[in-house]
Amino acid sequence: MKKCIVLANGKPPAKEIFSFLRENNYSTLICADGGANKAKKLGLIPDYIIGDLDSIHQSTIKFFKPSSKIIQLKRQNDTDVEKCLKFAIKNKFSEAVLLGVTGNRLDHTLCNLGIVIKFFHKINLKIIAEESLLIPYTGKVKLKTSPGEIISLYGFDKRTKITSEGLKYPLKNEALPFGERESTSNVSVSDKIGLKISGGIIFVIRNFNKAKANAFS
Asked: Are 29 and 4 in contact (CB under 8 A)?
């Protein structure tokens, strides 16, 4: 199973997160254009740098040219993160963790959240941002948790129905349409929770440090 990290040009995580992901077999680092500037600051060497290259510094290109494969794709009908994911799918990666996809620009953040939905059926995706871990799900899901762990759930339309087990505030074939209702800061009351999701995708957001022992196994 091939796994990769995609580092975008938003706020990067702490360097130890990269170490954790490497230990969990996310062995390939793909930088989306200006994400390479962040990699350079963190002392990381990308395997690939992909994008239209309008954000990467020329000094960064020069620095990484001997060690990284730099792929310039000038098309403007997809974002640099999408270019990276299309490359990953073409090269048979089955999972990707997106880093640096949130930050100062809210439009970029919303776009990257949408990308998780857009690519849901093509590659398994996770987002780590600040202290949060976001994973999209559909169907029947069993998650290892700790009692008292905060679990937030977000749906996107009325067709997506959720039934839960093991949460303090249970859901019974209920919808969480965006802008109307959500399940923010729900709480696990067990060492595992069950979700049954039909008619679409939901986002589950957890604290990364509390979830990492279970969510990456």
From this structure: yes
pTM of the entire structure? Answer: 0.94
Q: 47-82 b/e with 16+ CB inside 10 Å = b?
A: ebbbbbbebbeeebbebbeeebebeebeeeeebbbb
**Domain 2-130 shares a fold with domain 135-215:** yes
Q: Domain 2-130, CATH 3.40.50.10240 — does that match? A: yes
Q: Which amino acid is at 116?
A: V
Residue with tokens 């997106």, as numbered in its chain: 98
Over the stretch 156-176, which tens digit does the pLDDT of each residue have? 889 999 999 999 999 999 999
**Per-residue pLDDT tens digits for 39-74:** 999 999 999 999 999 999 999 999 999 999 999 998
Strand 69-72, strand 48-51: pairing: parallel
What are the residue boundaries of the structural domains of the chain, listed by start? 2-130, 135-215
CATH architecture entry for 135-215: 3-Layer(aba) Sandwich (3.40)
